[in-house]
Amino acid sequence: MPLTGRRSVAGPTRHHWLRRVGALGVALLTLAAAGTVADREAADARPTTGGPAVTDSHADHRYELSPEQEAAALALQAAPVRGSEFRANCASKGRSPDDPIVRPGQAGASHVHEFFGNLTTNAYTNLASLVNGGTNCDPQADRSAYWVPTLYQNGRPVAPESVTIYYQGITDRLNVKPHPQGLKMVVGNPLATSADQNPAARWSCRGQSQSSRDFLACPAGSKLETYLDFPTCWDGRNLDSADHKSHMAFGLGGLGGTCPASHPVPVPRLEFLITYPVTGGGLTLAGTRNGANVTTAPGYTFHGDFFNAWDVAALRYRVENCIVAGYVCGTNGQWIQQ
Predict the structure, then answer these.
(1) Are 276 and 225 within 8 A, CB to CB?
(2) Coiled-coil stretches, from where to where (predicted)?
C-alpha cells in the first residue's frame, strides 16, 4: 500500500517528542518514590463549592497502583513514539454531572465531566446506545465515548480547543489486539490529595518540554495541554471490573515490553491529547472533595474514562495496518509515515 504523505516535523510528531522529554523528566523524579498509595479519604484545603454533597462519590474511581505498576506506568509515559499509531480527532459534545462507568444510571450523581465523541453519552449509556448513536469523531467508525473532568478558569468552564485520541503500539506491538467492543477503562486518581498520588496526571504548555502533575501557568502565545495514557494490557476475559481497573494493567519494560501474566493480551496504548485555549492561572477541575462534587479540584486529580464502541472491523483494520505494520496513520487508517 503506498504512503499517502509524511507528517511534518513541526506537527504532531514534534509535539510527541516534546511531550516524551517532559514525561521523562517527571518519571525520573518519581520512579524512586513509586509505591502503593494509602487508601485515605480526600481532604483538600480549597473551598468545597460547586455541587451537591454526595456519599463516597467516585470512591471506586480511585486509581491506585502497586509499586511495579506505578514504575511501569511512568516508564510507558517516557517511551518515545516511533511510528506505530493511528488516531481519532474528536470534539466536546458538552458537559454534564454524569459518569456511565462509575455511576451508571445515576443522572447528576457525579462531578461534571466533558464528553467527547459519541453524541448520546449520558448516565444511562450502554454499548447498544453507543453503537446506535452518532459521533463527532473523525473517523465516524469510532463511536466510542471518552470523558474527563471539566476544566475551569476563574470559576468558568473551558471547552477544549482540540481533542486527539491516539492508539499507539507501545507494548508487544507485533502481537497487539484491538480493544474488544464494550471494553471500559478508567485511569487517574480523582481523589488524590497530593501530586504523588496520581502518576497519570500530566500538564504542559504547547511548544514547551516541561510537564507537571499539577497545572502550569502557560505564557502568552502558548496553550494548556494535558495528556493521559491508559493501560496497555487486558486480562482477556472481562470488559469491566468492580473497581473499573483490575481487568487492565500497564505493560512491563517500557517501549517494546511485555504484558504481565495476569493480563496477557496487549492492546494499543490509548492516549488523550487535549488542548485548551487558556494561559495563565486560576485553573481548577471538576472533582469530588470531602464528599462533595465541586469545581475547585487541583490539576493532580485529573483522570479519564473510555467506553469502546468502535466498529469492530474498522478498529481491527487500523490495528493491523498501522500498529502491527509499524506505520503512523491518519484518521482514515492509511499510512502517512513509516
Answers:
(1) yes
(2) none
Question: Can you read off the three cell numbers belonging to residue 143?
Answer: 463511536
Note the pLDDT tens digit of each residue in 280-309. 999 999 999 988 999 999 999 999 999 999
Contact 173, 270 (CB under 8 A): no
Q: Output phi, psi for 147, to 5 deg.
A: -155, 155
Under a CB-based contact definition with an 8 Å cutoff, are residues 228 and 302 in contact? yes
Residue 337's H or E segment, with its range, is: strand 335-337
- With respect to residue 6, please indicate whether it lies within any of the assigned structural domains: no
Range of the domain at 252: 12-38+50-337
Pairing of strands 248-249, 156-158: unpaired
The answer, yes or no, to whether residue 264 has pLDDT greater than 60, is yes
How do residues 136-146 score in pLDDT, each as one tens digit?
999 999 999 99
Distance from C-alpha of 42 to C-alpha of 234, rounded to nearest angstrom? 29
pLDDT in tens, 183-237: 999 999 999 999 999 999 999 999 998 999 999 999 999 999 999 999 999 999 9
Check: CB of residue 257 under 8 Å from CB of residue 171: yes
Q: Which residue intervals of 266-327 are DSSP H helices? A: 312-318
Q: Cell 493511528 maps to which residue?
A: 86
Whether 236 is in a domain gets the answer yes
How many domains does the chain divide into?
A: 1
DSSP sequence for 202-217: -EEETT---EESS---
Our measurement of the distance from residue 184's CA atom to the centroid of its chain's CA atoms, rounded to an integer in Å, reads 12
Percentages helix, strand, coil for the chain (3-state, rounded to 5) are: 20, 30, 50
Each residue's pLDDT tens digit, 57-69:
455 454 577 888 8
Show Cβ contacts of residue 231 under 8 Å, excluding neighbours closer than 6 positions: 73, 185, 187, 245, 248, 249, 250, 251, 263
3-state secondary structure of 113: strand
Contact 155, 140 (CB under 8 A): no
Sorted by sequence, the CB contacts under 8 Å of residue 277 that are 6+ apart come out as: 158, 161, 223
Paired strand residues for 18: none
pLDDT tens-digit map of 209-220: 899 999 999 999
Query: What per-residue confidence (pLDDT) applies to 36?
Result: 32
